Amino acid sequence: MDEMLRLEHVSYRYHDGIPALADVSLSVTEGQRFAVIGSNGSGKSTLLHIMDGLLEPDRGAVYFRGRRVSESSLKDGDFLRYFRGRVGYVFQDPDVQLFCPTVLDELLFGPLQLGLPEDEALARADEVIDMLGLTQLRDRPPFMLSGGEKKRVALGSVLTMNPELLLLDEPANGLDPRTQTFLLELVFALSEAGKTIVLATHDLSLVSELHCEVAVLSEEHGIERVGPADEVLEDEELLLRVNLVHQHRHHHGEMVHSHTHSHYLFHRHNR
Fold first, then answer.
1. What is the pTM of this model?
2. CA-to-CA separations, 46 to 167, 257, 262, in angstroms, rounded
C-alpha cells in the first residue's frame, strides 16, 4: 500500500518549554488502522495536532502523500484546500468542535467551506445524518445534545467532507457502552470503505478490538515501540514501563498476591 502520512524526527515543546514530543518518526499507509497509545500526558493529542497541521513541530517534518505539511505550505490556498479536504480531525472534546446553530448546519459547514454546491453538500449531510442515526436531532442546537450525541455530530461534521484520512483523538472517551459499540462498528465500516484511520487512545480494549498497527509513546514523549496490536498488548513489561498497566495487590484472607492490572484489558492472576 502507498504511504499516506509520514513523520520524520518530530519534536515539540510548548511555549513554556514543557516537552510534548521527542524525536518521533512513524509512517501510516493508505487504508491502515493505526493507533497511538500512551499514558496521559505522553503527547498523543499533540501528535495528532501536528498530523493535522494545527501545530508545527519545533524540529522534524510532516508529509502527506509526499507533500510537506507546514505553516508555510498551508498558506498556499490550493494546498490548504487539498489537505483540508482529505484529512479530517475529530477532537477529544466535541464542544471544541461544535459551534453552528443546528446539527444540520454543523454537517453542512465543512463541505460548503470546501466550495461544494449547496445541493451536493445537503445530500452529503442527509446521508451522514441517516448513517449516524441523527435524524431526530437534525434541527436541534448542539448545546442541547448529550455527550454521546455531540461526539456523533462532531464525527459527522468531518465525514461530510469525505476525507481520506481520519484522525480520532480519544474517540471512546466518555461514551456509554452502547455508543462505544456503535463507534467501533462505524470505524470498521469506514476502514472497509477504504478510509485510513489514526486514533490516539489509552483504551487498550479499543486497540485490541480494532487489530491496529500500534505506536507506543513513552512518558518521555518518544516512540517506545511500533508493531501489531496483538504483539504490543501481549508485552506486559512494555505496558508497565509506559504506565498503561500497573501491578495490583490483592488480599484474600491472609494471602497476598499481585498481578498486572488494567481497567481496559488485563486483569489476570499469575499462577
1. 0.89
2. 12, 38, 24
